[in-house]
């Protein structure tokens, strides 16, 4: 049974809802993009069902950013990500990430979720994943008890995690 997530930016110019079958903040991405956009430790992702995303308020306040994967010697992008990040153009709060590679999923940032409060805890059988450590400087700590990966965990990623989550709650 999906859970309705309600989210917003810090200045409340943008509000949205999205349904999630996996409303647990299970993964912290510590790639160079998430750390620059989200803060020192990175960003925490949740998986939502793309078709259920509804902008309740402030669609005109949303800006999209397609990050560079690599830069040349003049700091010009050489390669762009396949995903786009949506954020509030007023307060810069990150809202979600979307990629055409996985059109059925949208990835709201846990930091933007207001309800339910609190979000469900990670089940005892599960671990927080710290991913994309290959582009993370060594001074950025690994969260206590996290399972770390230089890239992504084995399997298909969040879709496999979703199946595991369903086994925990069913």
- Percent of residues in β-strands: 35-45%
Using the alpha-carbon principal axes, give the shape. Answer: globular
| Rg over alpha carbons | 16 Å
Report low-confidence residues grouped into runs of 5 or more. none
Number of DSSP-assigned strands: 14
**Helical coverage, percent range:** 10-25%
List the secondary-structure elements in sequence, H or E: EEEHEEEEEEEEEEEH
Instruction: Give the spatial strand order of the biggest sheet.
Output: 6-9-10-11-4-3-13-14
Structural class: mainly beta
Strand count, sense and closure of the main sheet?
8 strands, mixed
Keywords: Lyase, Metal-binding, Zinc
GO molecular function, one term: metal ion binding
Domain CENP-V/GFA: 5-150
Family: Belongs to the Gfa family.
Layout of helices and strands, plus pairs?
Elements: E1 3-8, E2 15-20, E3 22-29, H1 32-38, E4 43-49, E5 54-57, E6 62-65, E7 68-71, E8 77-80, E9 83-88, E10 94-99, E11 105-108, E12 113-115, E13 129-131, E14 147-148, H2 158-169
Textual characterization of the structure:
This protein is mostly beta strands. The chain has helices at 32-38, 158-169, and strands at 3-8, 15-20, 22-29, 43-49, 54-57, 62-65, 68-71, 77-80, 83-88, 94-99, 105-108, 113-115, 129-131, 147-148. 11% of the residues lie in helices and 39% in strands. The strands form 3 sheets. An 8-stranded mixed β-sheet has the order 6-9-10-11-4-3-13-14. Strands 5-2-1-12 form a 4-stranded antiparallel β-sheet, with no helix packed on it. The N and C termini lie close together (10 Å). The model has no long low-confidence stretch (mean pLDDT 88).
């Amino acid at each position: 049974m999906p859970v309705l997530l309600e989210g917003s930016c810090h200045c409340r110019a943008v509000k949205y809802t999205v349904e999630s079958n996996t409303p647990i903040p299970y993964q912290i991405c510590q790639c160079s993009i998430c750390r620059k956009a989200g803060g020192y430790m990175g960003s925490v992702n949740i998986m939502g069902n793309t078709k259920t995303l509804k902008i309740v308020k402030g669609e005109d306040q949303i800006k999209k950013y397609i990050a560079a994967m690599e830069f040349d010697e003049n700091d010009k992008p050489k390669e762009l990500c396949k995903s786009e990040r949506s954020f509030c153009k007023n307060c810069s709060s990150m809202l979600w990430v979307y990629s055409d590679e996985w059109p059925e999923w949208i990835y709201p940032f846990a930091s933007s979720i207001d309800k339910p409060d609190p979000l469900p805890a990670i089940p005892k059988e599960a671990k927080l994943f710290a991913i994309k450590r290959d582009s993370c400087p060594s001074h950025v700590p690994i969260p206590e008890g996290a399972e770390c990966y230089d890239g992504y965990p084995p399997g298909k990623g969040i879709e496999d995690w979703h199946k595991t989550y369903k086994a925990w709650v069913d």
